[in-house]
Design goal:
The structure is a homotetramer of 354-residue chains.
Chain A (H helix, E strand, L loop, with lengths): L7 H22 L30 H5 L3 H8 L7 H13 L9 H13 L3 H9 L16 H8 L8 H18 L12 H11 L4 H23 L8 E3 L2 E3 L4 E2 L4 E8 L5 E7 L12 E2 L6 E8 H6 L13 E8 L5 E3 L2 E4 L2 E5 L3
Parallel strand pairs in A: 1-9, 2-10
Antiparallel strand pairs in A: 1-6, 2-3, 4-5, 4-7, 7-8, 10-11
Helix pairs in contact in A: 1-7, 3-4, 4-5, 5-10, 8-9
Chain lengths: 354, 354, 354, 354
């Protein structure tokens, strides 16, 4: 019988191995928009990708009911080589009313983030310095924590051309010389383009501004690690939609809509077809809620051409807008995502609504 | 040696047969968004789809230099069973200055459309009545012109469920009883959903309003027939782009963009990668011009996530906007299509610009 | 003691006289954007503008409880010289279930409009022909109904320059010759620019299309006459707002908003100040509802500069957006008007929402 | 004969006195949106507001041709009590190629800003600490430089209610305790609402983030001081417009537009009327350029109702959109401001374009 993972260290090691495998697999199998395109699909690990099944992960309340040692061991790697954050967090749990303890992954994250933000400048600088240098060869990973290797393996740095590598090395050296800490980028769903674009933009920042930006990346990494490490049984978040016809000044009734999940790959696929009601909304409430509301990348397809064919708006033979895809990411399992469409036969817009 | 097509009648017959084949083929092979989705890909016929090669088709000036009989034979089927339109058009060519003769497919279309619009009400009503009844079984096509069978075969009426068929029959009967002419829909790139949505919306129109709407469909059919029947050597139209960063109030410089053609299927595929210049525009002029500027369906992909990673805007772990697709149709080979993106990390919009 | 108005004929006569006075007064006193600008303020008559006070007007249920003669007398002038509409409407009241009788001004309007739309083509053409010719001198009003004189007096045709007059006369003659009925424009809140712009655009229409457009104007006039003729005790309509920050992807909380009524002039003025709640909405429900929800022109002012000063978005010395006015009209007392703002420091949009 | 101002110190003193007078005057005379509203009009000083006439101010090249002492004296107060910035700037002038010397106010500002950004953390902190405490009574201005008193007098802190004053004092104390430097806000065109909104939002920032935000305010103040202190003979900036009809997918041709300047008050007023050409643009190039292109607040009025009356779009009696105002600020005399309108009868949007 296969032995299950027991400790957080083993957990993160498994995470690393599986994600490396996944990366290669997804590069081999993912549909390419073009040959130069690296996969955008996120690798938030789930049951299929490593041995610690979703059921074995603790929920946030489960985790916070454990012993001091367990909590610190489990959360100690969320901030790179900085288990003092987990320690202070555990301490704060003791001194506050138990009703104030975090109940969701978002609340847990905010509590830990707040500890970092309120720490001394020196502690924060130390935290930044604890991060591995992205520029060092991907094969020499010895001084990384396991968790950071997971993110790094996805950066596609292996696919850098020699020109790109030279440019990146030069920018990376300039960066370290100017700021005194390594370039940090939350890279789980990024490509080499993201990395180069980001370092190019950020190397010009004022020192104090880049300190803030780098810490923002550290928090983003912490958030992604937390999301991967806990089980979310009944997320409060949900996804809604609304279609307004800006040519006729009314809700777009009877418009067909499809929803697909594009990532994570193991749960990607068609989700459902909807037809808007007389108020331009989905007739049976949220498109996603509860366990269906997963962090990932989604895409609506709005059948705009069919809709306007039922109105008297003049359309061209090949309509300017026919099937309108709207691709968006869901990052926080506890929030409401309202992703509407404002559309005429000649224009459309969308936004993160509420 | 294979005998080439000689007469317009043969041409349209070939067009019909090839499109039916294409329809079945594309249904079998096209990637499906979902099992209930019919293909959205247009079937504007080209070299690969029927025997009359693009080179054999006349340009508009070529055509207008032919004999009266040839011109009328070639254009007589553009408006269904109404060669009087072609005849009057030919007459107008004789009486006007030769410099006023149409030089492009758009000008030719406008001239013929104007003749229809200025005709008597009775002539227009007759034109509407000349159209086949969409509701009659697709196999009983005997009283159709060949050209109309081509459009009709794409409506996917064969895929109607029995409920849908009953609904459609009932709507179609109500339509004919109310308006006195058959339901007409320019269906080359439509599905059964388009047909049902359209007849449901239009059956409620006031009689005079529906007359105008139906004639609009007739013009659209004429336009698509013209486009399929002439060669366009050097279209004046072109495609441009512009990206504005509405979070920072500046052009979005150094944003990667991909352009793909989604249809017609025989020329579908990746076209090019661009990187915006300091004004947020494509660095080497139009993305498409000349013979590359074809009627069809296109898709930009804007790498918005990479762009904002180079600014100091705070992004989430899974960004709300990362790769942003914008799908749009080009219908007129003589026009400028400006399809820009206005984007913040949390919203975007596009429109047909100029 | 002052004698009150008793009959609808007297009512419309009073309406005419008062509006003419109001027109001159408002031209003399209204604040001008520029010397060439005619007043945009609507003249929906109220207590102050003519002798029939709002209290004396019947509500829709009041009116429909009256005798056949009263109903037809009261509604007979809604469609110009076409009391048959009112007669058929009264007939329909008798034959249908009493619960189906219109209860609101919108329902009453829809019922009468439907009667017109379903009438024979000849009846509709007659209705169009019954309208006075806008081009005839404003002083020779002898063959107009009183109600149409009211709308016409507001067109500002008296302010046409001789060039404009010549252009208008020529367009008007071309219009009548082409279409066989006079040019009709619902002009209560229009200026000479509206009139010229409209006739220039519409004279090029296909005959059948212009018939539909002209009938649309007739319905609009009917709607405005109905609104002026009945009392609306407790309208179902209401006004709401929502502000979304598209730079930061969240509701714009704690944004100050002002609401003003710009017209009708007798109730114009500052209405209220609001501060958005954490969801970016007005904290105590609709901004306008019940008797405060009046047909007219309104303006939000959003204090966008102050809002972004509380975020860390970089603003310029003179911000691109500081106080953002959004001016909009409310036309239907029975509908929900949702007029939101989507805003970044560098862009904004609004729309009629739901 | 009136003695002219000779030294920068006198200049700033004059600026202070005149602006205080202007503040009171503008409070007395400016049109109020409501009684609670403080004036939004900026007070960029011009000929009318203080004795140093625009002609007497140096252009940037004039200024940089002066002696070292003059340059440092003139620019020494741009950054509060920190003439080292002007000194280092002068030094950089000596060491670089003369062609690299700033020629415009924007280039001069960027050069000085760069010196500050690249200075040591201690120097920057000192600069922040040099700023006066907004909370101290406005009458006790003894330790302020003259220039900062000018900005401060406009904050409308005199109009704080006692509740607001208590809240502000408490926030201000919390701010100083947390960050170790006084709350700084570029307040020339701000009200007490701006001040309260800003301090409430910023007091919650992480220490390092607020350092960056405060320095941003310092740069903004420097920019406004520079703008007030130099003459701009022939600014490169200009203002353009473009109107797109998103309901019909075309440029909005023949739309009337008005342009007004709302501030500075001494040059406020109606500027011009335009009518868009067939591409939806102003027919004779930029609306503002050269000396007409002044920093200030502007407002377009788009006559959208008249435009759509010429199309066949159905409008309501009181149109949802009729006269559409778009209010925007111009901050940089060297930049292109493109302020377009995308509009349907039921929606519109605008943005800072390029």
């Amino acid at each position: 019988m296969r032995r299950r993972i027991q400790t957080p260290k083993e957990y993160y090691a498994a995470l690393l191995i599986c994600c490396l495998v996944l990366t290669i697999t997804s590069i081999l199998h993912s549909p390419k928009v073009s040959s130069t395109k690296a996969p955008f699909i996120t690798t938030i690990p789930t049951r299929k990708t490593f041995n610690m099944s979703s059921e074995e992960k603790p929920t946030v309340p489960d985790l916070l009911n454990r012993s001091k040692e367990d909590i610190i061991a489990y959360l100690g790697g969320i901030y790179e080589h900085s288990s003092w954050v987990a320690e202070q967090f555990h301490e704060s749990l003791q001194t506050q009313n138990s009703t104030a303890a975090p109940k969701t992954v978002s609340e847990l994250f905010r509590a830990m983030k707040e500890i970092v933000n309120n720490a001394s400048h020196e502690s924060k600088l130390e935290l930044l310095k604890n991060h591995p240098d992205l520029c060092e060869k991907i094969e020499r990973l010895s001084n990384l924590t396991e968790a950071s290797r997971v993110e790094q393996s996805r950066a596609g740095l292996g696919s850098l051309t020699s020109d790109e590598r030279a440019k990146f090395t030069s920018l990376n050296n300039a960066y370290k010389a100017k700021f005194g800490f390594p370039f940090i980028l939350a890279v789980r769903n990024a490509t080499k383009y993201t990395v180069l674009s980001s370092i190019e933009g950020r190397v010009g920042n004022m020192v104090e501004a880049e300190f803030v930006a780098a810490l923002g990346q550290v928090h983003k990494i912490a958030w992604m690690r937390l999301l991967a490490g806990v089980r979310i049984d009944n997320p409060a978040g949900f996804l809604t939609c609304h279609v307004l016809d800006t040519a006729n000044g009314c809700p777009a009734a009877n418009m067909r809509i499809h929803l697909k999940r594009l990532s994570p790959p193991e749960s990607a696929g068609f989700i459902a077809e909807y037809k808007t009601n007389s108020d331009g909304r989905l007739p049976s409430g949220p498109a996603l809620k509860g366990t269906d509301f997963q962090v990932g990348v989604y895409e609506w397809t709005f059948f705009v051409g069919d809709y306007f064919a039922s109105k008297n708006n003049e359309l061209t033979g090949t309509p300017f807008l026919d099937e309108v895809p709207i691709r968006f990411g869901i990052d926080d399992p506890e929030e409401h995502y309202h992703v509407p469409l404002l559309v005429s036969p000649w224009s459309f817009s969308t936004y993160r609504g509420s």
